[in-house]
Amino acid sequence: MPVAKGMTQIDDEMTAAIEYSATTPVREAQRMRGEFLTRWRKRSSQLSPRGAGPCHVDLLDEMLRDLGIRGADALLHHLRTGCPMSGVVGYEEIYSPGPPGEPEITEEELLRRQPDVLARSTQAIRAESPANKEAIWSSVRKELEAGFVVELRNPPANAVYLRRFMVRQVKSDEPVPRVKERACDDGRMALINKAVRMATPVKLDTADVYAEVARRVAHRATTRDPGAAFKSMGLDHKEAYRQLRARNDRLCRCVVAEDPSTGRVRFFRMERLSFGEAAAVVHYNAFAKVLARVVRRGLKLPLCQYYDDFASPCPANDDTALTDVLELLQGILHTSFNEDKTSEGHSFRHLGLVFTIASEGVGVAISAPRREGLVHMLKGVLARDSLSPGEAASLAGKLGFATSALFGRVGRVPLQPVFRRSNASTTFAGFKLGGDLEEALGWWVRTLAEDEQCFRRTVPLNPIQPGEGTRYVLLTDACLFGLGAMMATITDGDVVAIEYFSHPVPQEGAGLQIHHLEFVAVTVAFALWFRDKDDFTVSVWVDNDVVLGSLVQGRTRARELRAAVHLFWERLARSRGDAWFERVPGADNIADLPSRLLHAWAGIPIRGVLPKWREVDQTQQ
Fold it and tell me: How far apart are CA 547 and CA 544, in angstroms?
């Protein structure tokens, strides 16, 4: 059977690191890492760094070639000379190429429109509150002292004006909640984000990836030693985007800020990547991914990377894994990490979630402080009956991470109204929530406040595989007058039962489009066969692309299906069932027969076992 859509994919390099970490005795692994670090520490002392890159670039170049990591030449060039912030940017050697295309506007058009950008930016800066002006100015002065920006008396003709503003994040998942302020430069208002095209979409190691990596490490190790125990470790890259230099030859990117003491608008050339610029995302993440790959190849630890957050599972008694990673990346390659944010332990916070690795599986949950913080925020929005686009964007990001506790499916439909509000241009004070938005926020409050189990899952260490244990295969289909499904129960590779249901489309369903009926067939099949089951694994095969997409993603553009798709995933989450979805060509879909109400046909042999058909009594529907 092909790999089902939605299953987390792990590449060969990560798989090799998982295998080594899970099967190599800790003392032997520590000895290997020690020898690797000693060799490259010596080489680092022999090779003096050149320039002001984000790391010892020449040493990184040598290390990549020694480890057999190819295709980083473009990245290394940009680390040495600066990263382009416009045009077509990407790293096809590091990420898979996206669809071809050009930027929405040219550099010439970008520069031609800068007088208007400056006027609008100045107006927005003047309108900031005194407190915001102080915070913005403080951020500029700190970056001036660090050498990240250089003041300009007169911006050049190729200046691109970046309005600075502050983004406030409530870190509700920490023991003592705090507000974190981050300076952001408005690449959208400056139009520079329209002058760049991402040739290679960034692929990150999400919460699902980390859960799967941890599961594989623990599963592989416990098959050799049932008593094996594990922990997770994490690192935080310091001033992530600011570590990389940007090019300012064709375009001079100027931060615009007001000096509160004089009221004068001043200009600063941005020397580094900037939060708020689209190109910064691909440049920084390519660099961070290469660092993670060096750890996987050199130290043989399955390190995951999500922006500036790095995490890896490892044996609980490996007391040097974290310090070895820090020694390689910070001590030898000269990148900077927030050592006060490094952590390790059995219960581990990563990407807003709490991960635990135990004998029954990898636990993933929203931390209690984060859950409480989200509920408090949501109740505040509902109480004042207002939500600005900026607030909606921040809220959507936080809720998006919450959905990753459940494979990213549950909660996606209630997220859509929040995302739509974040992209709206309406910011007037008279805006009211109403409709879909108010209903969606209410669902989040009820679910987060009243049902602690809904955003919690356990990924079993040894999920059922073909030929092992008991699993189910379900095929569904529909036509304009009938619904049908066939379900096989397979135990240890043998088909022990095949059942089907076949039912006419009720009168009230007349006139529905085919994808509506196809979705109904899936939900009826689940209600019939899985409503009383718990912790099951089922492979679902459908031949309708609209239905397949909505089931895989947990959302749909078909407005009339949104509530049904969401309810389907919510109920599945509560049952702790695992469902994987795949497309079956219509001609091969054996559920086509019962959907057309054809009940009398011969049994279809599967692996030599004749199935026993059972028509479902309509009273059970």
Answer: 6
Q: What is the C-alpha separation between 158 and 138, in angstroms, rounded? A: 26
Distance between start and end Cα atoms, the chain: 30
CA 348/CA 330 separation, integer angstroms: 22
β-bridge partners, 255: 162, 268
Q: How far is CA 456 from CA 158, 183, 407, 548, 574, in A?
A: 52, 33, 10, 25, 9
Residues 354/159, Cβ–Cβ less than 8 Å: no
Question: Beta-carbon neighbour count of residue 83 at 10 Å?
Answer: 23
Rounded to whole angstroms, the Cα distance separating 380 from 475 reads 45
Which distant-in-sequence residues (6+ apart) come within 8 Å of 202 by Cβ?
Answer: 95, 281, 282, 285, 286
How many percent of the chain have pLDDT more than 90?
A: 44
| Confidence grade of residue 610 (pLDDT, cut at 50, 70, 90) | very low
How many other CB atoms sit within 10 Å of the CB of residue 467? Answer: 10
Cα 141 from chain centroid? 33
* DSSP structural state of residue 556: -
The confidence score (pLDDT) of residue 287 equals: 97
| Chain center to CA of 76 | 26
Q: Both tokens of residue 445?
A: 């409050």
- CA atoms of 535 and 542, how far apart (whole Å): 22
Report the SS3 class of residue 229: coil
Please give the torsion angle defined by the CA atoms of residues 13, 15, 20 and 26, in that order, rounded to the nearest 10 degrees: 110
Classified as helix, coil or strand, 135 is helix
The predicted-structure confidence for 309-340, as pLDDT tens digits, reads as follows: 999 999 999 999 999 999 999 999 999 999 88
Give the closest residue to 247 by CA, choosing from 290, 281, 283.
283
At residue 179 the predicted structure's pLDDT band, cuts being 50, 70 and 90, is: low
Nearest to 14 by CA among 202, 217, 275: 217
| Nearest-angstrom CA–CA distance, 611 and 604 | 7
Q: Are β-strands 309-315 and 343-345 bridged in parallel, bridged antiparallel, or unpaired?
A: unpaired
The β-bridge relationship of strands 470-478 and 482-491 is antiparallel
Q: 582: which 2 tokens?
A: 């795949």
Q: What is the pTM of this model?
A: 0.79
| Residue 387 DSSP code | -
Residue located via tokens 């429109």: 113
Return the pLDDT at 614: 36
Query: Which strands, in side-by-side order, build the sheet including 347-350?
Result: 347-350, 353-358, 361-366, 456-459
The strand ranges marked E within 406-479 are: 456-459, 470-478
Cα 545 off chain centre by: 24
Measure the CA–CA gap between 103 and 86, rounded to whole angstroms. Answer: 8
Task: Give dist(CA 386, CA 432) in Å, integer.
Answer: 5
Beta strands in 78-120 (DSSP E): 87-89
Residues 107, 191: Cα–Cα separation, whole Å: 10
